[in-house]
Write a structure and sequence with these properties.
2 domains; Dna Ligase, domain 1; 3-stranded antiparallel β-sheet; 3-stranded mixed β-sheet; Arc Repressor Mutant, subunit A; alpha+beta; globular
Length: 147
């Protein structure tokens, strides 16, 4: 995200539209996610929040992540062995991810990259794909280059 203030304003507006408010823990979580590139595990968010507002309890961070995910401004994606990673999508849209099975790098994929697969699954198997929820597994270019 470009500017923490813009992101905070957008999230606050979305919360107000739902009759909710921007609490200190939510503000700290959004600030932590906006301050870090990439995808953070929940414990990484807890640590980042502690550096922003030491008064925010770990449980409040988890509740805030859940509330902000439900609001659609934070996306969570399950990566290798059940871990969960979080990142802001306040100005964008949820999208699929891929994770390198060797180095663990998580890569954002273009939003529509799995649309055709989703349509085929729906048509052939009556199954609705949630492409943004779980990372696809494979190998990144750097790891493939190492052999």
């Amino acid at each position: 995200m470009d500017d923490d203030g813009d992101v905070l304003g957008l999230v606050a507006a979305r919360l107000r539209a739902r009759g909710e408010r921007m609490t200190a823990p939510r503000r700290a979580v959004v600030t932590a996610l906006a301050s870090h590139e990439g995808h953070l595990g929940a414990e990484d968010v807890v640590q980042a929040v502690a550096g922003i507002d030491a008064g925010v309890h770990r449980a409040s961070v988890y509740r805030s992540l859940e509330a902000l995910s439900a609001l659609g401004v934070v996306q969570h994606v399950h990566v290798g062995h059940g871990a969960t990673a979080y990142h802001l999508v306040a100005a964008g849209a949820p999208h699929p991810h891929a994770q390198c099975r060797d180095c663990g790098a998580v890569v954002d994929l273009p939003p529509g990259v799995l649309d055709a697969v989703g349509r085929r699954l729906r048509r052939d198997s009556d199954f609705e794909l949630d492409a943004g929820h779980v990372a696809l597994s494979g190998r990144c270019a750097a790891c493939r280059g190492r052999g």
